[in-house]
Amino acid sequence: MANLVYKRVSTDQQSTDRQNLVLAEADIEQPVTFEEEGGTSSRLHPLERPKFGELLTYARPGDTVHISEMFRLVRGTQHILDVLDVLQRELTYDGLRAAEAKGNKGGRRPAIPAAKTDTVRTAYLEGRSIAALARDHDVSRGAIRTAAADLLPEYTAADPGTPAPELLVVLDMPGKVADFLRNTDLEPSERAVLDQGVTVRRGQGYTLRVTAVPAVHRRLLDRCQLLDGTSAIPAQRKARREYANRVNALDQ
Length: 252
Prior knowledge:
The protein has 11 helices and 6 strands. A 3-stranded parallel sheet has the order 2-1-3, with helices on one face. It has a 3-stranded antiparallel sheet with strand order 4-6-5. It is of the alpha/beta class. It has 3 domains: 3-79, no CATH class; 110-165, no CATH class; 169-251, no CATH class.
């Protein structure tokens, strides 16, 4: 059983001195260290960080992961759940491989079918995490990484001519807009961000807190253009204008 140490700093100007001190005080025996390149932001999902990916590949059941502070690894509850989901999948796969070695038959995690590769790549570009895509398609994280290999940060970082991916933006969508869009023919990635939205009650109505890249917000705004027409009631037209103002502000 190995002791795996994970380190990360958010900017090139920071050092790991504090992390080294905390970890040294823990007196970890024979540590195997995985340290991200300087400037690895906490905004980058842990499952998309190169060194943490190496740690997951190296890890085996019974190993212990050591970090100086929780925020070095995860940022928020969703990061924690995604990491736990991947660990569970990896442990299950290790168990199947062990069973196969003993002559027992076990399932093998499938790859992404060719017909679904474009869907996976589009969803990844629009902000869906690798762990979430693995759950969506019932495959391993590695299968998702294979399908989107040239889109991953460690690949695009080597090409300075490649534009950086858009960051996720949270916008409040008026309930009347959300109700209209739920009854509209949407792309899977668009419907996914609606399904993952957080409902915030406001008096007798509500808003839907939607997290997506700006491109998806703009497409959703385009989808509800009918709410500007004469067939819409005044409250719907007002809701659409409010949402349009919030989306258009992304370009300012």
